[in-house]
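Reopening closed ticket. The problem is back. First fold of the pair:
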Amino acid sequence: MNDTGLRICGVTAGYGRAPVLQGVDLAVPPARFTALIGPNGCGKSTMLRVLAGQIRCTRGRVTLDGADIARQPARALARRIGILAQSAEAPEGLTVGELVRQGRYPHRSLLGGWREADTLAVEEALALTGISHLRHRRLDTLSGGQRQRAWIAMTLAQQSGILLLDEPTTFLDLAHQIEVLSLVRRLVRERQTTVVAVLHDLNQAARHADHMVMLKAGTIRTGGDPATVLTGNAVRDVFGVETVVIADPEAGTPMCIPRRDPAIEMSRDMSDGAPHA
C-alpha cells in the first residue's frame, strides 16, 4: 500500500461517547481539490477536524506520509496541515496584515524574532490571494469575499502544503463564492496545494473539485471524480431527493437538477385557478 499523503484508516471518531464517523477509510489525493459533500450532520466537518488532528480517533488512525499524526507535535503538524474553521473570528480592530502574520506561528520559536523568511511568506500569501493592497485595512471593513481571502492568506502563510477549508463559501453571495473557489483552483494548479473543503452546493463542488467524497450518517457512500460521484442514484440515496443529472453547459461537469414535486405543482395550479375574493 502507498503510504504517502494524508490518509484516514478505519477511523471512528466523534464528540464524547457519541461517534460521528464510523470505520471510515479515505486517501486524500495529493495536489488535488477534494470536496466533502453530504447532508447536515453527516460528519463532513468532523472528518475535516480529524484530518487536522483536532479530534482524536477512538479507533483507527490518521497518517501523513505513513506517520500517525497523533504522535506528532502540534506545531510540527501545523507546518504540514493548515485548517480554516467555518466561523473563524479575529480580535476587533485587527488588520489584514496582522491576521496574515499570525499564520507564521508554527514556524517561530518561543524566543525567536521575526525573520526575513516570515516576511517573504506573508508577502507571498497576500499576493497570491490578491489582497496586498488591503494589508492595512481592518477585517471588519472588508466585503465577505475579501475577508475570506484574508483568512485563506493567513493559512497560506503557514506554507503547509495541505489546506483544509470548512464551508469556505457559506454566507457569501454568488460572486464571492466564485472568487473563493477560483482562488482554491489556482492554489491547486499553480502551487500544487492539496485542498480538502466542505461544500454544500453540489454543482459548485462538481464544477471546481477534482475529487468528491459523499458522506451519509458518518460513513462514506461514494468517492471519485465528479462524474462518478454525482449521479441521480447517489443523490437519492444520500439526500433523499429525486434529481436529473445533466452536463453543465459551461464546464461539462455533472449538474444536478431537482425534479419537480407533483404535490407542490398541483397545489400551485389549484391556487392559480382559484377565484380571487
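Second fold of the pair, where the issue appears:
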Amino acid sequence: MADNKQTAKPWPIQGGPPPAGSVAWIVGVGASAGTGAAIARRLARGGCRVAVTGRTAEKVETVVREINEAGGDAVAVIADVGTEAGVTAAYEQVKTLGTLSVAIYNAGGSQWRPNPLEMDGDFFEQVWRTNCFGSFVVAREAARAMLETGGGAILFTGSISGVIARPKLTAYASAKFGQRAIAQAFAREYGPKNIHVANIIPHGPIDGDRLNSRFPHAKDARPEDGMIDIEQIAEAFWTVLIQPRNAWTHEMDLRPYCEPF
C-alpha cells in the first residue's frame, strides 16, 4: 500500500510560523518604542528565540527584559553593525543560541543635510555603512547559516528613499537604493534555495521613539491615524514571514491613508 504521508519539508516551504525555539536575529534595535523592538516582540510571541542586536546596551537590555518578562525568550547581542568586524562578532554570539531561521535588518534611519554640497565624505560613508554595508554582511552571514540548515528568511526594513531620491537625503537614498539592490540580488540567488528574502518599505512618518522624541509636535500636525504604527510594521513582517513558498512577497510598502504617492 502506498504511503500517503507527506514528507516533512524544511521551513518556510509550506509557510506558517518559524520553527518553535529557532533563532530570529533582529539587527537594529533601539528604544522599546521603536520599530526594531516591536519586531523583536512579535517574533518572540511567534515562538522564536530572539537575538536582539543594537549599539546601546541599556536600550537593548530593556527590550530583552520586557520580552522575557512577558514570557518570551530573548538574548541581548550588543554590536556596531556598521563594520564587518562588528557584524561577525555579533554573529559569533548568535550562532551559539540555536538554529538561525530568521534575520531582520532594521539598522539605520533617515539622515539628511540641507543639500548635497553640505554632505562631507565621512557623513556619506557612515550613512552607507549603517544602512547598506551592514545589510550585506548580515544577509551574507545569515544566508550561509540557512543554506546549511535547508532554509530561512532574510528581511530588510527598507525606505521610500530607496525608491525615490531627494536632495536632502542623497546619502541616505543612495544607501537605501543599495540595500534594495542587495535584497533583490539575494532573493534571486537564494529564493530557489528556500531562503525567503523580502524588503518591507515604510512610506511616511513612523509613530515611534525616533521621530516622537526629536519632533514631539510632529504627530499633532498630522491627520488622525496619519503615522505608521510600529506594531503594524511588526505585524507586516510577521505576515510576510509566514507565507508559503508558492506565494512569497518580495517587496511590500506600508503607508498611512493620507500619505501622497
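Update: turned out to be a display glitch only; the data is intact. The chain has one domain: 23-254. The longest strand covers residues 195-202. Please close again.
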